[in-house]
Amino acid sequence: MLNRFCISVFCCLLFTCTPVSALSAETEKAEVMEPISVNAARDILELEKLPTSATVITRQDIEEKKYINVEDMLREELGLDVLQNGTLGSSTTVFMRGGGSSSTLVLIDGVQVNSNTLGSYNFAHIQPDNVERIEILRGPQSTLWGGDAVGGVINIVTRKGKGTPSHRFSFEGGSFATFKETFSTQGAFDQFDYAFSASRTDVEGFSSANERNGNTENDGYNNNSFSLRTGLDFAEKRGRADFIGQYIDARIDFDSFVFGVGQVDGPPHTSQDLYYLTAPVSYKILPFWEVRLNPNFAFDQVKSRNQPSGDSTIISRTSTLDLQNNFTAGDYYNVLVGGEYQVRAGENISNGMDRRLDNKSAYLQGIFDYEDTIVITAGFRHDVNDSFDDVTTYKFEAAYRFKQTGTRLRGAYGTGFRAPTINDLFFPGFSNPNLQPEENTSWEVGFDQSFLNGDITFTSVYFDARFENLIQFNLATFRPENVARATSRGLENTLAVRLPWDLELSANYTWNQAFDASTRTQLRRRAEHKFHANIHHWWRSRLHSLIGVTHKSKTLDGATGTDPYIVVRAAMDYTVNDQWKLTARAENLFDEDYEEIPGFGTAGISGYAGLVYNF
To answer: pLDDT tens for residues 482-516?
Structure first.
């Protein structure tokens, strides 16, 4: 333990005690940033104007933090609980603001990718190589996106090619026999642009069943990922057509579950094939009217082999056609009108289940944006489904900016719903075709404050969400029923400070009380307290380093739970010249022994190094 402690202290000193430049970070990294248009809000407002609680992880964040998977980026973010049941590639789900894992709608370039059988999305395999940004909207978004957006939306936006064609090769290797190779290329020719990436990840891993319980068999993982985005501007740039595709082929070993014992070493493995396709087209018919048509398709096939209960193959397909009209009425008013038709299919071959859900919806939203001072939005949506009652949702948002003091007050009130999954409704012997959607009513108030010309920014938001008709499995009837109620309330704070000597501090803290309204007990796997902070340092535009600290309080999981923990990491990169860059990162520097889910292991102290070649 002493040797590990010394190594950890040395790594911290190495990453933070870099030479201090005489130049300020402001002059070294001065860059004109374009306003971020948030796709998850249907591009109606820029990030800084949104009244709702939103976070955007930019491409710069992805490059600086050097995580191997998108899930690791999300672990640091406000209001999110990210849970993984073992080594890299193991099933990973996200809870947002106390909602369940199926209460967060996940989009990839506007394609809805949640599993139709389980309801949640498995973040284990999505790579950040061709990701431009990750948009996180907290609170119910059903007015714009329908079911499953009851807790919020996470939208992953891939890169758009620009400028002279350029290419990149990168490599990283390290602990647990981890190796990753990535090739990417992007650029533009007149009205045509493209961006493509391909990567291969191989990991020997560690035992997903926690080693502290005597499990020693490593669970390996490999991943092949391909991402393509092409676009064409036409009609003198009044129109644009895109084709976006992503394919992932992954295989993960995992451990068996023995009743009364828990997770134990075993031979099962899962292979997963996923692809997402979308071909959005937009055209400005008149100066005040733009129409957008987005046909898209998501496919997810999971094959589990060598399980004690037998082999299984589960397939999820989602086909969506979305038509959106944006109208501009003068300088301050915008109206968004649209409709969506969606078919969600789920198939479990071993159990003979093959069902589909058809959903039609219409939505309307009005936006008032007055000179960067007042923003008001109001909207509603009506969903008609062939398997449960119609649902109408609505949302009102407002924000006011005091320009003299740099203060912005904002608030929101809205409703949302989560549709029953195909398993909930149709799984043979364990379903309930009479289920109704879960319902949510939520409100929030908050403020944003900046000081010293933006060198210090602080935000604080209080939220309160009430869940009704929660779908819960009844052990007496062995069927899911609308019997539960839950309450989730909390406080979300962020702080960002530009410090002297080329340092920057960013931190966030989430307090979330999520509990069963009838028993007043804490909901499973939700942490009441979560804190994360990063300290960045830049030296002469060549060397960047960071130290990150994450704290999470205890959680409950039935009769067991997880203990609180603190994890420290470090990352750095050194730009040798215009072509070469060296990278390194160290995870869990103090070798914290912790769990995210009871019975499942997590990585101890580990190190990785790599290089990037641009040509």
So the answer is: 888 999 999 999 999 999 999 999 999 999 999 98
- Report the DSSP beta bridge partners of residue 281: 241, 293
Cβ-Cβ contacts under 8 Å for 408 (sequence gap 6 or more): 399, 400, 401, 402, 447, 448, 449
Distance CA 182, CA 189 (A): 24
Distance between CA atoms of residues 579 and 581, nearest Å: 7
Domain ranges for the chain: 2-614
CA distance 463 to 86: 32
Q: Which of 362, 288, 297, 359 lies closest to 324 in space, CA to CA? A: 362
Surface-to-core class of residue 530, CB atoms within 10 Å of its CB (0-12 exposed, 13-18 middle, 19+ buried): buried
In the block, which residue shows the tokens 């692809």? 275
Which pairing describes strands 152-158 and 104-108: parallel, antiparallel, or unpaired? parallel
What pLDDT score does 28 carry? 37
**Mean pLDDT score, 295-304:** 95
260 pLDDT higher than 70: no
pLDDT in tens, 142-170: 999 998 899 999 999 999 999 999 999 99
Q: CB of 129 within 8 A of CB of 156?
A: no
Please tell me the class of the 2-614 domain.
mainly beta
Check residue 269 and give its pLDDT: 80
Distance CA 80, CA 55 (A): 11
